[in-house]
């Protein structure tokens, strides 16, 4: 059995892919739940794996992203455009306004409503750019991730269940 066959064709492989997708900056929770449910994993298990994977990068982003950007600018000049785009996203007045105005609740709601560009990675980036402390940002982001996870799991369970019924 090859590596990719392992990833796609057994419980642990599907779990690893779900976990890794949930940690990724673009797909995050939404993509990992869709994958895990589509792969046939139990929805409660997918929910738990996706939540854990989505939360793990948050404190590291808040603590280290500025230093990472600084290092990238100095040693990987060819990634300067990427750094500028990410900083612009973190410094976007539209994102920062809500979080500055409502603090904990603004950050929580920013993550909890599963819209494109409003996940844990963006919230952690905004929190870092605002200089928020871990003890203020991480709980809000975690509760937001759990809330978004509930919404996405229920939505995808219904959609995939309905499609499955149609295909019977």
- Low-pLDDT stretches: none
Mean pLDDT: 87
Question: Would you report the number of β strands?
Answer: 0
* Helix share, percent: over 70%
Structural class: mainly alpha
How many separate domains?
Answer: 1
> What is the N-to-C succession of helices and strands?
HHHHHHHHH
Name the shape in a single word: globular
Question: What proportion of the residues form beta strands (DSSP E)?
Answer: under 5%
Span of the ends, CA to CA: 30 Å
- Estimated radius of gyration: 17 Å
Number of helices: 9
Main sheet characteristics: none
Can you summarize this structure?
With 168 residues, the protein is an all-alpha fold.
Topology at a glance:
Elements (H helix, E strand, L loop, with lengths): L2 H7 L1 H13 L4 H11 L4 H13 L1 H19 L4 H11 L2 H20 L7 H11 L3 H34 L1
Structure description:
The chain is mainly α. It has one domain (3-167). Helix content is 83%, strand content 0%. The protein has helices at 3-9, 11-23, 28-38, 43-55, 57-75, 80-90, 93-112, 120-130, 134-167. Helix 6 (80-90) crosses helix 8 (120-130), helix 7 packs across helix 8 (120-130) and helix 7 (93-112) crosses helix 9. 35% of the residues are buried. The model has no long low-confidence stretch (mean pLDDT 87).
């Amino acid at each position: 059995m090859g590596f990719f066959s392992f990833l796609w064709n057994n419980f642990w492989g599907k779990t690893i892919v779900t976990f890794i997708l949930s940690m990724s900056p673009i797909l995050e929770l939404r993509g990992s739940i869709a994958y895990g449910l589509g792969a046939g994993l139990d929805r409660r298990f997918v929910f738990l794996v996706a939540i854990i994977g989505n939360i793990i990068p948050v404190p590291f982003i808040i603590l280290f992203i500025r230093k990472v950007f600084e290092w990238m600018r100095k040693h990987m000049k060819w990634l300067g455009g990427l750094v500028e785009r990410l900083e612009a996203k973190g410094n976007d007045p539209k994102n920062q306004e809500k979080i500055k105005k409502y603090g904990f609740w603004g950050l929580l709601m920013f993550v909890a409503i599963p819209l494109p560009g409003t996940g844990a990675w963006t919230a952690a980036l905004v929190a870092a750019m605002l200089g928020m402390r871990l003890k203020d940002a991480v709980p809000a982001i975690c509760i937001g991730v759990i809330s978004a996870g509930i919404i996405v799991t229920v939505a995808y369970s219904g959609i995939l269940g309905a499609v499955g019924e149609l295909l019977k």
